Amino acid sequence: MKAIGLPILAASLLATSSLALEPITIKGSKFFHADGSQYFMKGIAYQRSPFDPLLDKKQCQLDADLMKQLGANAIRVYHVDPDGNHDDCMKIFEDIGVYAFIDLDTFHTYIEQDGPPHWNETQLTEYTKVLDNLAGYSNLGGVFVGNEIITRSNGSFAAPYIKAAVRDIKAYMEEKKFARKIPTGYSAADIAELRPNLQNYLACGDDSSVNVDFFGLNAYEWCGEATDYHVSGYDMLNKNATDYPVPIFFSETGCNVPTPRDFKDQFAIFGPEMRDVWSGAIIYEWIQEDNNYGLVDYGRADPKTAIGGDTWARGGKPTPLPDFTVLKSVWSSVTPSGISKDKYTSTNGPISCPASTSGIWNVDPTSALPTLGQTAVFAEASGDPVERDSTATTSTGAPAETSRPNSAGKVVVVLNSCFMAAVLAVAVLL
């Protein structure tokens, strides 16, 4: 593990002293503002730039002005530059009351479902670089150790590596004596066969040092006027989360079939059906791309300067699309009051770890978590439950180069081979 460098620490202290928005806190299964009022997330997936959208002060200001009109109070950013200066953009978003939820992984350090799964010193070091860079900002709402690592029903064997990452990130903050412990969680793909085993596994037992502080679900089940609370399956999502001991929210949502979207799921999420259990939602996504999930449009990219065949501009003056107008109207109509922190007593005690079930949940709840540097054995990667040897040692080298399933639930940026070749070519020239 690496120490916090003095320049980073100094920048963190400076950022903390200049910000007025106080950190949100967690009590039981809910988020709270500093004044004790409950925090409900109205968030936007904000990955305008493939590698870091929080470096361009002018662009952040243009986007923040519109997000304020929209009523957003959170952004989710999937990739940031651990060496970049985020003071300006974090301050701009702080000024409009927006908390940032940041993924710690990079395109080369995410925990793989296949390959097989591993968690090593190289990955941890890169995760902590991102954490060190952002920890000083009081509007850092939380960090994700991964996004959609498990993408198929028989991929549960990767779950212990997610939990091992949570354990080591929390241990790092403890070792380095962080001024506050940054909430740490995971964002899951919505795989029906794994519900609710995965969310329960990541928060089961009474050892908070290894459990997630929050759980995010990427769900795209509520589609169009023909869908409702029951048809979408939201009723079952709510039932499965009723006794969850930590905050749970939609870390991506916003089905775009048909278009324009009506966002009627927000009435359920923030309404009497779900607001006692769920802490809000992050809408996918801010920027218009070929996937047609955008709330704003920067226009088409100049084909002479576009990299990797990207046809959409990734910056400039944002023009609201019809979905923006609809979401603005919906969010202005849903204002859940929640419960005050001093009147809230969590009744959700520790939950049991799901039992291993062949072909459904291939994780033995009695097995030790992987040690730092451990790689899944062949049987485990094949989907068979195994007895994990906590003393095993394996290579701690960098993870193998593989193509990532999605950098976000519906592909934030398609990094095809041409794009990566261009990036590598630039790197060689530098």
TrEMBL record:
Topology in membrane: Lipid-anchor; GPI-anchor
Region entry Disordered, spans: 381-406
Any single GO BP term: fungal-type cell wall organization
Main location: membrane
InterPro entries reported for this sequence: GH, Glucanosyltransferase
GO molecular function terms attached to this record: 1,3-beta-glucanosyltransferase activity
Enzyme class: transferase
Subcellular location: Cell membrane
Source domain of life: Eukaryota
Gene Ontology cellular-component terms listed: plasma membrane; side of membrane
Residues in coiled coil: none
Function: Splits internally a 1,3-beta-glucan molecule and transfers the newly generated reducing end (the donor) to the non-reducing end of another 1,3-beta-glucan molecule (the acceptor) forming a 1,3-beta linkage, resulting in the elongation of 1,3-beta-glucan chains in the cell wall.
Sequence similarity: Belongs to the glycosyl hydrolase 72 family.
Name of the protein in its database record: 1,3-beta-glucanosyltransferase
